[in-house]
Each structure stands twice: as structure tokens, then as C-alpha cells.
Design brief:
The protein is of the alpha/beta class. Helix content is about 35%, strand content about 20%. The protein contains 9 helices and 10 strands.
């Protein structure tokens, strides 16, 4: 009766294209914020493009081992917001859609002194989703009555949201117990995201950068690139 597609992912910092593709293809997108934080992962850093190639853009955090993603604080003793905006301006000011995308990011960066990484990341994801025209419903896993670890947690979230299908990233095949999904009557589908090639600044094309690289270069057409090159198996 329910044909509801649910996707689940940690709330990453300015995520890559595949993240937004999963969001675009799901009915409900869950921010997995109730699991242990992984240091130096894509939750607090991402790659952008410069004349010297790809570099990391990193949000400094004050992290204690074992903390949940929802608990990790940003280290505001560092002038990271000013530094990020300067870095983005320096490397993207010659792109076709610099003005509107930079203003969008600047507004979120300077909205307040962000304390929790999860709040900052989700606000950025919301802003970018709106720019792309993605209207998928979102929810934080920490707001749900769910339990378990690894596959069991994913199933618990899917069941709580009455999902008929769980849309997983390709990497999920390595650690997920596919039989458990089957036993619970949930259809497990892997994202068949294929990275589009678009016009980038600074020479040879680089895959896997932050979504903002696409936005700066392609503006309102960005959603067409997410849709045209990809599919779901």
C-alpha cells in the first residue's frame, strides 16, 4: 500500500552531487544525526576547485571521541567563516553564477555564530535544496522513536516512516545486511548516480567536489545535470 522511498545520510558539509541526487529521488530524506560522529569525514570538510586543483574546505570542530553527530560543536575560536568566504570568493569569482550562489552561502554563514555543526550543515543543505528546487520532506533521525545500530537502525528508521523502499548509496552494499531488509519487507535499492560532466573553472574536470562547484558554474541549470546523467537501479 505504501510506495514511499526513504533515503538516509549523515548531514554532511556542503555535500557532493550524489547526496542531492539521493534527496531528489526520495520521498523522505533522513539526516542521520543520532550515530557516532566520524572525525575528518565529509561531515566537516569537502573539496572545492582552485587553480592548483582540488583543496579541502574544512569547518573546525571541538570533538570528543564517542560523541554523536548531533552533539559536535564548531570551534568558533578560529575565524573559519571569514576564511571560507574569502576562499570561495577567490576561487569562484570568475564563474558565471558567482553572485547569486555566493550571496546564498554568505547569508547562511553570517546568519549567526553557529554552535553545532549539524545545525549549520542542515541549514546549508536546505538553502541549496531550495536553490535547486528540491522539495523532498526532511527529518532528523534524532527526532524519531528508533533504535539499533548499522542495518538495524536503518530498518528501524524506514519502518518508523512506513517506507516501502530504502534508497541506499552505492557504498552501503559493503556494510548493509541485505537479507534483513528483505525479512522486514523493505525493498533495498542502490543509487545508480553517475557523475555528470559540466563546465568547470580551472582546467581539467574533477569529479566528487562539493555541489557548490556545480552551482557556481551552472546556476539554475544545476538540477538538469543531477537529473540527466543519473538513474536508480
Amino acid at each position: 500500500m505504501n510506495h514511499k522511498i526513504v533515503a538516509i545520510h549523515q548531514p554532511n558539509f556542503l555535500p557532493w552531487l550524489g547526496f542531492f541526487y539521493k534527496m531528489l529521488k526520495s520521498d523522505i530524506f533522513v539526516f542521520l544525526d543520532n550515530v557516532q560522529y566520524s572525525k575528518n569525514s565529509y561531515q566537516n570538510r569537502v573539496k572545492i576547485k582552485t587553480p592548483q586543483g582540488a583543496i579541502w574546505l574544512t569547518v573546525p570542530v571541538s570533538h570528543k571521541f564517542g560523541q554523536l553527530t548531533s552533539e559536535v560543536e564548531i570551534n568558533n575560536e578560529e575565524p573559519w567563516r571569514k576564511k571560507h568566504l574569502k576562499t570561495l570568493e577567490l576561487n569562484y569569482k570568475k564563474t558565471s553564477f558567482f553572485k547569486e550562489v555566493f550571496e546564498l552561502l554568505q547569508e547562511i554563514y553570517l546568519k549567526k555564530e553557529w554552535e553545532l555543526l549539524v545545525d549549520f550543515n542542515i541549514e546549508l543543505i536546505f538553502g541549496i535544496s531550495k536553490f535547486l528546487g528540491i522539495k523532498t520532506e526532511t527529518i532528523r533521525a534524532s527526532s524519531l522513536n528508533v533504535s539499533g545500530k548499522s542495518t538495524d537502525l536503518l530498518i528501524s528508521i524506514a519502518k518508523e516512516l512506513n517506507a516501502s523502499t530504502y534508497l541506499s548509496g552505492k557504498g552501503g552494499a559493503i556494510y548493509q545486511d541485505e537479507e534483513k531488509f528483505k525479512a522486514k519487507g523493505i525493498n533495498l535499492v542502490y543509487s545508480d548516480f553517475r557523475h555528470p560532466v559540466y563546465t568547470q573553472a580551472w582546467g581539467e574536470f574533477i569529479e566528487g567536489l562539493s555541489i557548490i562547484d556545480l552551482l557556481f558554474n551552472c546556476g539554475n541549470d544545476s538540477i538538469l545535470y543531477l537529473n540527466s546523467e543519473s538513474g536508480v537501479e
